[in-house]
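Record Phenylalanine--tRNA ligase beta subunit, 803 aa.
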Amino acid sequence: MKISTKWLSDYVNIDVEPQVLAEKIERTAVEVDDAYRLEKGLKKIVVGETLEVKNHPNSDHLHVCQVNVGAEEPLQIVCGAPNIAAHQKVIVALPNSRIADNVKIKRGKMRGEVSEGMICALQEIGFSESVVPKEFVEGIYVLPAEAEPGKPVYPYLGMDEDIIDLDVTPNRADMLSMRGTAYELAAIYDKKVSLPTPAIKETAAEKTADYVEVTADSDLASTYLMRVIKNVTIKESPMWLQKRLWNAGVRPINNVVDVTNYILMDYGQPLHSFDYDKISGKQITVRLAKAGEQLTTIDEQKRELSAADIVIADEKGPIALAGTMGGQDTAIDEKTTTVALEAAVFNPSLVRKTARKYNLHSEASMRFERGINRQTVAEALDAAAQLIADLGEGEITAGIAQGALENIASVEVKITLTKINKVLGTKLTSEDVEDIFRRLGFGVKVDQDLFTVSISPRRWDISIAADLIEEVARIYGYDNLPATLPTGELVPGHYTHVQKMIRETRQIMEAAGLTQAVSYGLTTAAKAKSFLMQPSEITQLSFPMSSDRTTVRMNLISGLLDDVAYNVARKVNDVALYEQGRVFYREEGISRPTEVEHIAGALTGLFETATWHDAKIPVDFFLTKGIVEHMLYSLGITTGIRFVQTTEHQEMHPGRTADIYVEDKYLGFVGEVHPTVAKEYHIDRTYVFELDLQKIVEMPKQSEIYTPVSKYPAITRDVALAVAKTVENDAIINAIKKTSGKDLAKVELFDVYEGKHIAADYKSLAYKLTYQNKEKTLLDEEVTKDFNKVVAKLKEEFNVEIR
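=>
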């Protein structure tokens, strides 16, 4: 919001240097982006009058001009502007002058003709092209006829005004207007605000009801009002209005549109003007768009509307997107004679959705989104109607067409002096606080320690006691608040059990040789539904930032595969990554998903490269499975771990995938990514795992206890079994452990053989069983007895043949 101190002085008298004022605003209210004056740095730029304009003898586009600049003799200036003509008042940069960007203008020759200065466009003296009237964008600017040759040009263009550019935060939308800013500065400097109120003159014989009838759903527009001004002449706005607009960063267009923009900046109230003669019928309706309806907006874009868009509609259909942009078919043009002027308060959520969907963020939509002063809607409408009538020689019809009107009341908030001083650490008196509330324009009643504060509707951001404390702090001055250290009981900080387990899991993964990856929590719907560990509904965003980030993830593997693909595409073929994070499961009929901690890994290529003394170690199923086992053992889960072959995961290789259980509790899976999925990601053979870390955290665990090394010798027994290929190693080891006695210390599979001397549907598995007692030396007879029980059990359960 660009604030002109000259405009501001019409409402509140603050005799302060602009830089000082800007610094005070920044410390008390909102941030200030810049404080500047357009004439600063410019030199010797005056009003000129073109006495004679001739074509340049050596150019087809230059002109030789004789220009009166208030001196005894006119200056000869060569100008290439297409709109240069005789008897114009123009902007002249004299010889040795300085224009924008510190460019110096000197006497010289242009194609053989002397040029003693420069006739300037507004852009060349520091104006942004976005505020230059369209008719002068491609040429020089023509000043009003009353401009006096030889006089400095700055006052004619408002360049002698100081501008403070405010960066208004969303919670202080009341400062998106000159009047709101005037109230704020009056409170800061304890000054009085003097705001003019419009005196409406309804000079037309007709009533507004003779022209329009308006209806509005109060859920869409809590207030909707309309006035009609007839016999309006569309023309250029007077200079005072143009200056105020371009100093506020708005391009002047014509007297009707300029008035609506002027009131927007003055009151913070968005308005819209319709060409009444282009409206079909008398009935104006505020409603939601219907499926299939279309609207061509004033930017000449044809838009397909949706049922979430608020529209202003006549009897044929939509004529404007409410609070966002008007329609091309009812826009004001040079032929307009009757203006239908709208003032309203639209549903902020729906306006924001519409503005975002069509990328139509504007000054009006921003104010509707953040809030406007609902108390001055009718006043702003009257002020605009009267100004349009004055500038366009029009007549205002009697009365206001009312579709909806909100009943506005002040908000009462209670707070105690004790609470204020406790929060701020101050020793303010009741009189101090009461004075601050008075300066802010609030009504206040004091009952001993209790303040009952009546908040004006112009400060809709204040509704609770904490807001009042902030207001007291601002006006009293943040730099006046005492600086003290926080007090309270000191307690040692520590991680929770869950935090410790999560950090320990990360350390285990990194110690195992994996590198942590962090993937997006948002992905596509297809990737979100891949590698699922349990049934779940997808959770999609209403307004995703891109088509690749529409759905919250339900697995970590998809993100890790993206990371693997990223590395492989850059010739990094040996990748070992893990990620610890949350996935989001949602049950049908429930809107909010449940967050679950997971841990996952992805490995491809070589786990260890070959060296002069070590062979290379490629990634395979058993290496990946070993990492998972290592993690579980390190976390204290040492018993009941089972790996069960599965074909249930469509994205995984059906013969190289296993579900992971602890006893009967499902934790996750490990295995090779299906070749077709790997091909989609453009990666080679890749192994992955994903586990429910939350279940692991909640499981009972075996604490690690130091056990001294036994001083008694161990005895080993080897056994080779011919078993059917369908029998799993895990089942045999579990049977050995359950059957053997307490002296069995370890079971190891040391050989697997298939081939000659073994039946086609059989395999040979060789195991080493280690027995050891920590309290005595085992006898060979004791071990043999225990070993024979194991062999008998294996023969009985698996029909094995001892080789």
